[in-house]
Amino acid sequence: MKELGKLDFYNRIDNYCDRDTEVVYKHYTKSAKGYFLDTFFGSMFWKFMLFELVGVLLYLSEHYISHGEFKEFIYFDYVFMGLGAFFYIAHLCIKLWFWKYSKNVIVTNHGIWIMWFSTFWWSKNFKGKKRMFSASWSLYAWEELSGVFEEECKISKITKLKDFVMNRWDGEETVRFLHSADVDEIIELSIKHINPRKRKKQRDPKLKPFGKKKTDYYT
What we know:
Distance between the termini: 31 Å
Number of helices: 6
C-alpha cells in the first residue's frame, strides 16, 4: 500500500472497522487524465454552457429581432451568462480540490473504501475536524454489496480507462477513471468476497450477470 501522507487511511472518524483486523489488499489511484478531462469538458461543462447559450440567444434577440425595443431586459442576458460562468468556476474549484482525495480507492477484506466530500461548514472530514470543504472515507462493505460491475463512460472510452459500479441496497455508486487492469482486479476480489446467494437475491434485474460489463447506464 502506498503511503498516504496526510491522507492517513486509518485516521477516520467513523470507526466502522477495527484497524487491527482490517487487511489492505491494494491502494488504487484513478487516472488524472480521465478525471481532469471530465472536470473541464465533462457533462457538467455542457450543462453550465446552457446558461451561456440562453444568455447569448437573449442578447441576439434583443439586438436583431426586437431592435433594442426591450433594452431593460438586457440584464437578464448578463444574469444567465454570469450564472453559467459562476457555476462552472465553482465546479472547477471543487473538483480540483477534491482530486487529492477522490483519486484514492482502497480495497480491503472489509470492502471498498472511496472518498466523499461535503461543502457544508458543519461537516467533519476524515480527521474529525469541521471544515467548509471536508473529505471523508466511505466504506462499501462486501456484505452490503450485491455485485460489482464493469462499465465505461464516454471519457473512459476515449482515454482507454474503465469504471466500475457497486450495487448496494441503497442504489448504485460508480467509480470512474481507473486503469483496466485495476478494475479487473477489483471485480475478481469482489467475486471472492460477495456471497453468491445474497448476490443472486438482491441483484437488480436490469444488471447483466455478475462480473460482466454493464452497458445500460452510460453517462
